[in-house]
Write a structure and sequence with these properties.
- This protein is of the alpha/beta class and about 900 residues long.
- Helices cover about 45% and strands about 20% of the residues.
- The protein contains 35 helices and 34 strands.
- The strands form seven sheets. It has an eight-stranded mixed sheet with strand order 15-25-24-17-18-19-20-16. Strands 27-28-29-30-31-32-33-34 form an eight-stranded parallel beta barrel, surrounded by six helices.
- The chain is elongated, with a radius of gyration of 34 Å.
- Bound molecules: adenosine-5'-diphosphate (ADP) and magnesium ion (2 copies).
- Adenosine-5'-diphosphate binds next to strand 6, strand 7, strand 8, helix 10 and strand 12.
- The site of one magnesium ion (MG) has 2 residues, from loops.
Length: about 900
């Protein structure tokens, strides 16, 4: 290796800096940076992550020249510290510490007090005039070295220590004296022997073994697991650096101590100094939790000068790094040393508050603030969560797909009706179903949460729950439901109707019993402010998918700039409307159908008006009837018997109608625009309802922007046919009313043929909305209702990187979108382009849609805040938009 492998700092100089995190690890880079800033840091040197990489790629061996480089650095360390490694009079002691580019707290190893042996320990005792301290330090080193570097069980050492304590009849380490520690050391050496190991007396030998142990710990089980959990791919980081740092001692008496502090409160984000201090202790004592530390302020009582210096430097560090810092420090005989600083981990709440406060304090710009909070954190703040302590104790009985975030607890019910009954009495319930259908919507709304045994991320239950902002878990296949017996079994536990369960729609986990939930914080205070920053930065518009005025209002409050998708069919399920809809479906003649539609018209008109009002002049995209008609009719005999007379037909007739409507593959059946081709009068009625509602708005002096959307178009001829009908109907009404009203007619792009003939379609359509659910289904040929059974095999084998219904498949479906965009805009540069599939609320997909230069995304109301943030982050990342001064 001809690269520089060792970076020195100390004595007022530093070869490294904070910019070199990849090479020196976070710890090493920041130690160098602090030395550069002239802060009191014990001198030391860092061996680069490249050496770690070399080590693992070369059969656990080091580059040839490393030894000489380490020797040279050690010499400099001796000069700066005025001590000598292994010296009988004034020995240099060091710590050997791990530290990768990404902080992995406690995952790898650190060894303290290295350099002690039978000789140097005596020098330490003499120089400090504190034999107890010296022998304690020595036995700690032997223990840590044995455990970390040689793999001797930690437990064996603890046992020996306890033995000495017992013999002396004391309970605490602090009650032991120098001679006791000498005994402990003898016992420790025995332990080495029994384990067939040798404790090296030569400090150089100790150092090399320790360096190798730190590099070795890069691949220990803990560290590998940590990286996996945190989404760090193997090979993404080079490895860990090794920091060799002069020891300073916090355990030299009452004017010594050690602590950890944060420049702001990591739980709330409040701008107060926060931390802990333990007098007369070495760093590991705090972490090990053997003694309970004091709150940081205690230091102000014990050592006021040190406290003053510490808080001043805390401010300096936060200003320098422009973010909240997590700092480790040690006081040795009244002198303060900084051992580490890093960006502090924080709760979602604190992340938002700190980002916003730092903007107000002028430390960072808005673009930086927006990058400091993840969409997940915003999501967390908007949904209830379980009490962390209670959930730890709860019994997990199953797991499914985390379909709609948030935590809910309630009594189990197995039918929508039951859910509504209980809810009326104010009893919280969890609706448990094999799957849900449109008839269950009332019960879903009444329930606290929804749990289904089947279905995927775009199943009915998932989509509707997200729209309602209700926690939901779907496809929990471990749960076996017996609807007859009103019970389910999961992992050997039987849960009966009325028993309490708790579900976490954020993690997908199901728990037995009641768990306390914590209310979400809502869109107020700093969260609202942060999202306003996001709005200033983003170029993508954010709309909501909302079908009823209540959802539209929620969406508006969350900052939606319009409705990107109103699914009109949902309006037909409410109350007695379903009967009118059914009468329309069973009509034998056009006249009968028109009569039934005539009854639906005023109801639809009122719905649309409510949506227009909620949207306050922002565009409202209304999709004409989309699902196959059989979804509106019952399947079972009993219900048909009840329904037939109400519809004025015989049961036989109704059965025949249902049978005729049956389709082998309804997703590709008689639905979408195809319905309107067969029954144009339905489209006429819906157009009338939309336009009449809009006319009323105009007459009331209110702004309104209706957009009529034709679903499932595969050829321009379908659109031409409908466009003509819609426009004739609309224009006639507008003319009759004598008002000024503009409206748009556009289409969904969700059939591959539609996407690749987008240039033809754009001749007619004023806008495209990509229905990425259907587009994914049809482009991949994956049935949304069935893909759950095999998608994990695909992901495990790396064929698809992730669930294509969750994160848009950029290579395939994404290309469809790009092609349609390019073709469409080539004939109509004004063409408005949006997305209204579930991907519209997924940050990763939003980034893609930003890059593809669409105009807006539309998502369920509760995802609107997430989409606003994700869109702003995409704008910052790809430097397209209105932000200024975004550094790094
Ligand atoms: P981690 O990455 O797990 O935080 P560190 O390398 O920071 O591990 O070491 C753990 C503890 O050991 C620190 O909290 C610090 O207090 C103590 N420590 C490390 N190096 C030294 C040193 N040179 N002098 C005194 N204490 C040290
Ligand atoms: Mg540390
Ligand atoms: Mg569709």
């Amino acid at each position: 290796m001809d690269k520089k492998m060792v970076y020195f700092y100390g004595g007022g100089v530093a070869e490294g800096s904070a910019k070199m995190k990849n090479l020196l690890g976070g710890k090493g880079a920041n130690l160098a940076e602090m030395a550069r800033m002239g802060l009191p840091v014990p001198p030391g040197f860092t061996i680069t992550t490249e050496v770690c990489d070399y080590y693992w790629k070369h059969d656990r061996s080091f580059p040839e020249t490393l030894e000489a480089d380490v020797e040279a650095a050690l010499k400099r360390l001796e000069e700066v510290s005025g001590k000598k490694f292994g010296d009988k009079d004034n020995p240099l002691l060091v710590s050997v510490r791990s530290g990768a580019a990404v902080s992995m707290p406690g995952m790898m190893d650190t060894i303290l007090n290295l350099g002690l042996n039978d000789e140097t320990v005596e020098a330490l005792a003499k120089n400090t005039n504190n034999p107890r301290f010296a022998y304690d330090a020595y036995r700690r080193f032997i223990q840590m070295f044995g455990d970390v570097a040689l793999g001797i069980p930690h437990h064996d050492f603890e046992e020996a220590l306890n033995q000495v304590k017992e013999e002396k009849g004391v309970k605490l380490d602090i009650e032991l004296e120098a001679d006791d520690f000498k005994k402990v050391i003898e016992l420790y050496k025995e332990i080495y022997k029994k384990a067939g190991k040798e404790f090296p007396q030569d400090p150089k030998k100790q150092l090399w073994i320790a360096i190798e142990a730190v590099f070795g710990s890069w691949m220990n089980e803990r560290a590998i697991k940590y990286r996996a959990i945190n989404g760090i791919k193997e090979g993404e980081l080079l490895g860990t650096a090794v920091n060799v740092v002069m020891m300073v001692f916090g355990n030299m008496g009452d004017d010594s101590g050690t602590g950890v502090c944060f420049t702001r409160d990591p739980n709330t984000g409040e701008n107060i100094k926060y931390g802990e201090y333990l007098p007369n202790a070495q760093g590991e004592d705090v972490v090990a939790g053997i003694r309970t530390p004091y709150p940081l302020e205690k230091l102000n009582e014990i050592l006021p000068d040190v406290y003053k210096q510490l808080t001043e430097i805390m401010d300096k560090l936060e200003h320098h790094y422009k973010d909240m810092q997590d700092i480790e420090f040690t006081v040795e005989k009244g002198k303060l040393y900084f051992l580490q600083t890093r960006t502090g981990k924080r709760t979602a709440k604190a992340a938002v508050k700190i980002a916003v406060d730092l903007v107000k304090e002028g430390l960072i710009d808005k673009a930086t603030a927006v990058m400091r909070v993840t969409p997940d954190q915003i999501d967390k703040l908007l949904h209830p969560a379980f009490d962390t302590e209670e959930v730890k104790k709860a019994q997990e009985i199953g797991e499914g797909l985390p379909a709609s975030p948030g935590a809910a607890t309630g009594k189990v019910v197995f039918s929508a009706d039951e859910a509504e009954e209980f809810a009326k009495e104010g009893t919280p319930v969890i609706l448990v179903r094999p799957e849900t259908s449109p008839e269950d919507v009332g019960g879903m709304n009444a329930a606290e949460g929804i749990l289904t045994a089947t279905g995927g991320m775009t199943s009915h239950a998932a989509v509707v729950a997200r729209g309602m902002g209700k926690p939901a878990i779907v496809g929990a296949e471990e749960i076996v439901i017996d609807e007859e017996a009103k019970e389910f079994t999961a992992r050997g536990v039987t849960v009966k109707d009325g028993d309490w369960i708790s579900i976490d729609g954020t993690t997908g986990k199901v728990y037995l019993g009641k768990i306390k939930t914590i209310k979400p914080q809502g869109l107020e205070g700093e969260v609202a402010e942060l999202l306003e920053f996001a709005d200033e930065i983003r170029v993508l518009g954010v709309r909501a998918n909302a079908d009823i005025p209540r959802d539209a209002k929620v969406a508006r409050n969350f900052g939606a700039e319009g409705i990107g998708l109103c699914r009109t069919e949902h309006m037909f399920f409410e109350g007695d409307r379903i009967q009118k809809m059914r009468r329309m479906i069973v009509s034998k003649t056009v006249e009968q159908r028109e009569a039934a539609l005539e009854e639906l018209l005023p109801l639809q008109k009122d719905d649309f008006k409510g949506l227009f009002e909620a949207m306050e002049g922002f565009p409202v995209t209304i999709r004409l009837l989309d699902p196959p008609l059989h979804e509106f009719l019952p399947n079972d005999e009993e219900q048909m018997k009840e329904l037939a007379p109400q519809l004025g037909i015989t049961v036989e007739e109704l059965k025949e109608i249902v049978e005729n409507l049956h389709e082998f593959n309804p997703m590709m059946g008689h639905r979408g625009v195809r319905l309107a081709i067969t029954y144009p009068e339905v489209a006429v009625m819906q157009t009338k309802a939309i336009i009449l509602a809009a006319i009323e708005m105009v007459k009331e002096g209110k702004k309104v922007k209706p957009e009529i959307m034709i679903p499932l178009v595969g050829t321009v001829k379908e659109l031409k046919y409908l466009d003509k009908i819609v426009r004739e109907t609309a224009d006639k009404l507008i003319e009759e009313a004598g008002v000024d009203l503009e409206y748009k007619v556009g289409t969904m792009i969700e059939v591959p043929r539609g996407a690749i003939t987008a240039d033809e379609i754009a001749e007619v359509a004023q806008f495209f909305s990509f229905g990425t659910n259907d587009l994914t289904q049809m482009t991949l040929g994956f049935s949304r209702d069935d893909y759950g059974k095999f998608i994990n095999d695909y992901i495990e084998k790396g064929i698809y990187e992730s669930d294509p219904f969750k994160h848009v498949d950029q290579t395939g479906v994404g290309r469809m979108v790009k092609i349609a965009k390019d073709y469409g805009r080539s004939v109509n540069p004004e063409l408005k382009l949006g997305v209204c599939g579930e991907h519209g609320g997924d940050p990763e997909s939003i980034e893609f849609f930003h890059k593809t230069q669409l105009d807006y995304v539309s998502c369920s109301p509760y995802r609107v805040p997430i989409a606003r943030l994700a869109a702003a982050q995409a704008a910052v990342k790809f430097k397209r938009g209105k932000f200024v001064n975004y550094a790094d």
